[in-house]
Amino acid sequence: PRRTSTEKMVAMADRSRLVNTDSSSRMGLRTIWQSTTAGSGTYGIGSINRIGNELIIADRNNVLTDLRLDSGEEIWKDGSLPRNETIFGIDLFNTNGRDFYYVTTDTDVFVIAADTGYVVNRQNMVRIPDTSVIRAGENLIFGTASGRIVWHNTRVGYELKANKLASGIVNGPIRVGKNIIAASVDGEIMMMSAGGGQRFWRKDLKVGIRSAPSASRDAVYVA
Asked: What are phi and psi of 21, to 5 degrees?
């Protein structure tokens, strides 16, 4: 029999999903909750960030929705962030007994009250991020397109430390215990202290690196 438009849409949706109704049943999985966010309609989801017992969902217009992880209940929704900026990281900090989300974009770090979603402050960026962000103590660490590794201090709202590779960083620095490792597109690898920023070693492989490194306790692996 001919399928209705609704049936065709359901079939298309199932084919586009990594896990659909049939495959989840075969794997013994079940849906415990669903939630509608700002990006559920036209714009779609840009990123999902798990922070403690909450999920911060950013749609492609930079509207943020805060959901409870266990139930999907909406805590708040806010569209104050500029629509055209790229979000590189969302991190939770406690200041004077209050929780705040620090949202790193390509122009500013926006400080958002965790209980209401309101933007209460913004910190200007000296350098434009080009990678994901790592949190270390009071600092947000990221790489730039020119190969600079920046420690943006959230307490003073300014870049306090930096290190440098000769070319752009591949996908961002990674955390290895109390240290971070960054690799450049031209084949340099460097390990630094996450807290102090001092360089421990630097190696030039003299070959291009295409993806972010991985690491164990004893070794760094690059492709």
From this structure: -60, -45
